[in-house]
């Protein structure tokens, strides 16, 4: 049975950020997760901030995710940092077929720790797993996992937005870690309408499970 609008409005809201270098595949991951779409021709970089909503149930309880896809270009870094405020989880994304993309992760970790709540859950994702079959891997699974563990991240996985492989996993595991931190979700808004940002100024594309 589909939930009523009243029950949907009462769902706790969790703010999740996707961060990482330009070209890492953040937008493709978000689009595949929220709308189950993949555009193989898309090479357009996110301008500023993109935003989508997604409903997710973890441990038998429903949540509404506000997911922010932040631009990876240097000129948008100042804009992006203001969106760390109130974030419950930060997913750091790199391209496993690009060594430079992975090498930039330390910088992104530093930015997250500087701007996000110290309690916010950090999770690492390596994208473009589909390129492995064609010999396109530049960063091993072991390298990615070891780096995530060294940074004290809540988890790590590799995904393919093209094939859907593991696409849901980082979001489910991030929320699972968030909800185990009562002090972190204590202030979660009971409705998407109560979240403190101007939805009219963002390219909003609501979606649900």
UniProtKB/TrEMBL annotation:
GO terms for biological process: protein transport. InterPro entries: P-loop_NTPase, Rab, Small_GTP-bd, Small_GTPase. Gene3D superfamilies: P-loop containing nucleotide triphosphate hydrolases. It holds the Pfam family Ras. NCBIfam families: small_GTP (TIGR00231). Belongs to the small GTPase superfamily. Rab family. PANTHER family: RAS-RELATED PROTEIN RAB. This is Uncharacterized protein. It comes from Xylaria flabelliformis.
